[in-house]
Amino acid sequence: MRNYIEVRITVGNPDEAKKLASVVVRRRLVACAQVIGTIASTYWWEGQVQQAQEWLLLMKTTADRFDDLAACVRELHSYEVPEIVAVPIVQGTPDYLEWIRRETAPERDG
Which pLDDT tens digit goes with each residue over 67-105? Predict the structure, then answer.
């Protein structure tokens, strides 16, 4: 079985979320990207506790596409250190997982 993952990324505004989602789907780095917003984030940055409104993107892909996806996100993201984390999809229906594999196959790039 392939290693399927969900990649989580946060951004600072809805326009950036929509643009990023569109680009990574168009480049076939992910099968789908869902935008959830707004979320309230509390985090350490530059020695201080910060609070901000952010938008969360959930993206479904395969583990072998992670490096290309992360590079694309870094290229487009406004943050100096963007959150780009992946969690395994440990189970899913066979047809959904096959759809992820098919839509993110490198030979479909473009």
Answer: 999 999 999 999 999 999 999 999 999 999 999 999 999
Domain ranges for the chain, please list them: 4-108
Q: What is the pTM of this model?
A: 0.91
CATH code of the domain occupying 4-108: 3.30.70.120
Planar angle of CA 31, 76, 18, nearest 5 degrees? 55
- Judge whether 7 and 85 are in contact, CB under 8 Å: yes
The residue among 6, 4, 3 whose CA lies nearest residue 84 is: 6
For residue 109, give the nearest of 17, 27, 14 by alpha carbon: 27
